[in-house]
Amino acid sequence: MAELLTPLTVREIKALGRESGDTFASVLLVKRITARTAKNDNPYLSVELGDKTGSFNFTSFSDSPTFELIKSVGEGGILRVEGRVDYYQGKLSPKILRADALTPEQLAGSPVIANLVEVAPEDPDKLWTEFQEHIAFIQHAELRATVQAVFDEIGEQFRSAPAAIAMHHAYRHGLLEHTCRMARACRALLPLYPEVDADLAMAGILLHDTGKVSEYQGALVTTRSRKGILQGHVVLGYQLARKAGLKAKLNADLLERLEHIILSHQGELEWGAAVMAATPEAVFVALVDNLDAKMGMVQRLLRQAGEGDEFSEKHLGLSAAILLTKPQK
Q1: Pairwise CA distance, residues 197 & 190, whole Å
Q2: Is pLDDT at 301 greater than 70 in this prediction?
Q3: Most confident of 34-38, 55-59, 91-95, 208-212
Q4: Topology (CATH) of 124-302
């Protein structure tokens, strides 16, 4: 077995090879637990374990020594695991031979703890400085004051929040990174679409996902909060914008249009939009959001690819596996 002093990352486990059957040791986060029932009515757990380099699923049956341990540590728990490399339907699904719970205190000062939490690849301080420039880009005084008022209230939370639980930019500072990248795309694309009001589009982009600071919670693993479950980030973001717009004395037409961007930015009703986009700015923001979300998925798959991998695993948000090799020129 590999020693705890040199635990393998998920990427390193994947590099061991599909046919190797190698054993390994690792320290990983319990990212997701799903309780299920087998055809014989016996309960089992589908467990996602991971670190900042990737994740994998394994099955813990009710007669396994890991079953009660997983239930007791819960999502966000830290485990030292020993396992054997195995694959199921083309995906890494190791046989976990042993698991022990660890606390953050036990790992204090160890580089292992830093390896558990994925963070944005871009420097968050530089992103936050850039973010202020995007606010300043808004020329309309009351629109700019509306945006500024929201971030005066939630700025600290916004800087560190993830943009999702799993789909895109689902890591620390991911919400800031996603919003900055959308703002960059906005400024690049606006000259092509003079029908889109630049101030409204930028204000909508900067505010579109602000409800996520209340929708999500958790230091090591992201879960949905009570507010997130009962209201969702679209409604929570709308509430933030409306309160700030009224405070800034934004005129009724602009406030309604800004609120509409937030309510419609998910693009489709089945994706969580409250309404379909019905203004030039709302259509523009929804499409820029979808573009960066999808490319964020691609970028993360490329970052987490193992050496020698030709294709990623199929990604639910993309409905496809991604070719990981660069074009040959």
Answers
A1: 8
A2: yes
A3: 208-212
A4: Hypothetical protein af1432 (1.10.3210)
Reported pTM: 0.85
Strands, DSSP E only, in 69-210? 78-84, 87-88, 91-92, 95-102
- Residue 21 CB: number of other CB atoms within 10 A? 11
Query: How far, in Å, are 173, 299, 301, 307 from residue 310 at the CA level?
Result: 29, 15, 12, 9
Over residues 71-89, the pLDDT tens digits come to 999 888 999 999 999 888 7
Fold agreement (10-116, 124-302)? no
Sequence spans of domains, the chain: 10-116, 124-302
Give which of 131, 137, 277, 136 is closest to 210, Cα–Cα. 131
Q: What CATH number was assigned to the domain covering residues 10-116? A: 2.40.50.140
Report residue 99 as tokens: 């698991």
Which residues sit opposite 54 in a β-bridge? 51
Any idea of the CA torsion for 172, 178, 184, 185, to the nearest 10 degrees?
160
Residue (of 210, 212, 293, 291) closest to 258 by Cα position: 210
Report how far residue 20's alpha carbon sits from residue 272's, in angstroms, rounded to the nearest whole number.
43
Give Cβ neighbours of residue 8 (< 8 Å, ≥ 6 apart): 2, 16, 24, 25, 26
Q: In this structure, what token pair is assigned to residue 264?
A: 């419609």
* Three-state DSSP state, 237: helix
